[in-house]
Specification:
homodimer; Aspartate Aminotransferase, domain 1; Aspartate Aminotransferase, domain 2; 12 helices; seven-stranded mixed β-sheet; alpha/beta; 407 residues; four-stranded antiparallel β-sheet
Chain lengths: 407, 407
């Protein structure tokens, strides 16, 4: 008799964004004609730069010619793109070999799949609030006995609380943990770890033989030059960290799908040999994945330099302009806001001790603005909302005007 | 201390195709100037049909306009494509709801990931020889205690031998198994299960509460009208089967990346409720995947009907023309061949009791033709080679001429 993987039944609730969609659609069905302004999902809205579109069309032309057609690429990604990324990272003064890069169809899949490399007995830690994928993938991976409804936490997982007191940057764990998920610039809080804060984690990891899984999907949003964009700017990180990144938020590739993961050959755990974790990820990708779309990879290569890179910078600047408008607007109605300076997300405290979902419903029904309830990202997200700067400028302005008018 | 997933160390050897590449490159390095003819990897070689390229370029135009740009799509795939597939399957007289379809970035990922839905204690069975992904993903999934070097088999796995005696179609297992991988038209043997043979497996699965994981990636190569192209042509299959399929081999999307999986809502195990396995896969995809590339999906939609479908049929016919030439050529030098009539693969017996790798090396070094050693697909593949009909016609003809000349 086929039995099912019971770890799925330990997942506490529907994934956050489908639940937002459900509430939003319910409201729209009951209130026909209402136009909602969406500052919820971190979904890009501006058109793909023509420089990237042209590169992808040129790839399509090559694919439509039998002399230049290519079928399967390497599971690890095209060599030119991997080498392009080596060069891209050299801006940070970080040197890699191209075989330390693995091209993927996006950061989400890599962030979810990376835990498969590690034993079930590992204790995982993550920033609370956190991108739900870190947590949910480890639930499915069998690292919790279940969800504790009273505490609002999964058993066995270590929640590193990010709150006003610590400026949304947690201290290193006070117990021994094995795998640490860090996201900077952070989704959802918008907080960015500085060099010293990141170094504390690197030191902790090296001392405790832990491994850091660093999500840098928003690195292009860091504008302050003294803030690190990659964990590998910190000395020693190559021995204890994996970095996951994406073309989604700078090149507008949320639907095109392209990302990468760096697994340094220097990375070891006490349970592994030098290079072994790199080899394991290589084997994992060769078995479970067949390479990212070659069309997307052509676009990604164009995004790394020259006009393509300039166009991506302009996209990021556009969204950061939105972030400024949102933060200023929310503060003008008395909301306390964090993030939004080196990140596309504004993390706003709910007024009048409302819960996250209460304020979500208020903004939906009264202001017709959709945001993301902070509690959906973990218990420390309660009493906050995440406001996303992804949107057309005119819609962002309308949303802020509506909030100003109705609050 | 971070520990690694020791199941990776149970994987018996490098993935088959990298090993072929290694031997081939070694030979080329030692014999500069030799031109090899490749009939090895099942990698498409003919250009993408213009009808599909045009559809993808039109999608790029939409993405380069802010009014028609779209970011994240649904993790399950675009509704239009899912509905297009519903219609595509109606040719077989099989009715589905579009929510039973899940668009993916290709059959390989789905074939590898599908086992995550099931408990570790499940006994898996598969045709031997088999596409290595079924086996390797279950090794990583923790369903074997290790590889038995003497037997050349993984412990706990049930190998359903496909051999000359049974016409390369195995009988149902004579013990109780829980998950059965079937591939028809088969990779690597080229054998196609008829309706009665498939029905025996459906009956077995229903009786034993097992689930069939059916890989139909080569279904478009079936030309005999009395052979089933989908397992769902067999009554009762919706209650016991999942089907995985792909645009790789009919639309030439090996590098573009697009596939789908059907998880019927009627599918149950005794351990699950009606609709639960469909919901689990939905949750799995929403957590571990972020949708297939929207550009590829636009191409896939074009491939399902009208000119696009006709163009894909022409591609399949081209490769089947190659298959005919290969089979006839190999038979003319006295090799016993199977498959190749409703499948792009010819399964040829090695001469003079050579092992698969011995004949591989002979063909590489003497004929300068690269094939795939059958033993790489499992113990029953020993003494066979797989010859792929993917190649430019002139290269196929050259390869066959070289074999004729040198054997």
């Amino acid at each position: 008799m086929a039995t099912i993987n019971n770890n799925f039944s330990k997942l506490s609730a529907g994934y956050l964004f489908p639940e937002i969609a459900r509430r939003t659609n319910k409201y729209l069905n009951e209130n026909k004609g209402v136009e909602l302004m969406k500052l919820g999902i971190g979904n890009t809205t501006e058109s793909l730069p023509l420089s990237l579109v042209d590169a992808m069309k040129a790839k399509l032309d090559l694919l439509s010619n039998r002399d230049t057609y290519l079928g399967y690429g390497d599971e690890q990604g095209d060599t030119t793109l991997r080498e392009g990324l080596v060069k891209y990272y050299s801006r940070y003064g970080v040197k890699f070999d191209s075989t330390e890069f693995f091209i993927s169809d996006g950061a989400k899949a890599d962030a979810a799949n990376i835990q498969e490399l590690f034993g079930r007995e590992n204790i995982i830690a993550f920033q609370d609030p956190a991108y739900p994928v870190y947590v949910d993938s480890n639930v499915v991976g069998g690292r919790t006995s279940g969800f504790d409804d009273e505490k609002g936490c999964y058993n066995n997982f270590v929640y590193l609380s990010c709150n006003e007191e610590n400026g949304f940057i947690p201290d290193v764990p006070d117990t021994k943990v094995d795998l640490i998920y860090l996201c900077s610039p952070n989704n959802p809080t918008g907080a960015v770890m500085n060099h010293d804060q990141l170094k504390k984690f690197v030191d902790y990891a090296r001392k405790n033989k832990a491994i850091i899984l660093f999500d840098g999907a928003y690195s292009e949003y860091v504008k302050d030059d003294d803030l690190p964009r990659s964990i590998f700017e910190v000395e020693g990180a190559k021995e204890c960290a994996i970095e996951i990144n994406s073309f989604s938020k700078n090149a507008g590739f949320t639907g095109v799908r392209l990302g990468w993961t760096i697994v340094p050959k220097d990375l070891v755990s006490e349970d592994s040999e030098v290079g072994q974790i790199n080899s394991m990820w290589n084997r994992r990708q060769c078995t479970f994945f067949n390479g990212a779309s070659n069309i997307a990879q052509a676009g990604g290569l164009a995004a790394l330099s020259g006009q393509g890179y300039e166009d991506c910078r302009a996209l990021v600047n556009y969204y950061m302009g939105n972030a400024k408008i949102i933060k200023k607007g929310l503060e003008s109605v008395g909301l306390t806001c964090f993030g939004g300076d080196n990140s596309p997300y504004i993390w706003a405290k709910t007024p009048n001790n409302m819960t996250s979902w209460e304020f979500f419903d208020f903004l939906l029904k009264v202001c017709h603005v959709v945001v993301t309830p902070g509690s959906g990202f973990g218990p420390s997200g309660e009493s906050f909302i995440r406001v996303s700067s992804y949107g057309h400028r005119e819609n962002v302005e309308k949303a802020i005007a509506s909030i100003k008018e109705n609050m």
